[in-house]
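lol ok so funny story. i was supposed to be doing the assay writeup but got distracted and ended up predicting the structure for this chain instead. priorities right. anyway since i did it might as well share w the group, maybe its usefull for someone
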Amino acid sequence: YVPFAKVITKALQVIKSNKKEYLVVEVKSRISRIDISEILYMECEGHYIHIILKNDEVLTVLLPMKEMEEKLFGKPFVRCNHGVLVNLNHVQSVDKNIIRVGKHELLISRPKKKGFMEALTKHMGGLNS
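and the output, tada:
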């Protein structure tokens, strides 16, 4: 026998975890809504940010990386080097200074490595010792 309140609480947790979150940006003078869970990583090139999606589509937006980080505050995105912002949900492995995200390999810079690894470990729920 499970109390009704417990069942409802569990159901609400499941619903909340399935709720999609979106990033709204301007792509080629058109406002686009991107499902955050579809973003693998973002790479800065000058004043442009290339958003790499799971389906290999690349969207380019004119936006400073700092402003993109502010839009994604509280979401699982962390810089692995000066110009790359990674979605922690898609990190498959880290080997020395290389992060594997989907079929992409990204470099972790020395100054960002400690913070990135701490954020990744926290995101994954810590390490069992």
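The chain has a mean pLDDT of 88. The beta strands are 22-27, 30-35, 39-45, 48-53, 58-62, 77-81, 84-87, 91-95, 98-101, 104-107.
back to the writeup now i swear
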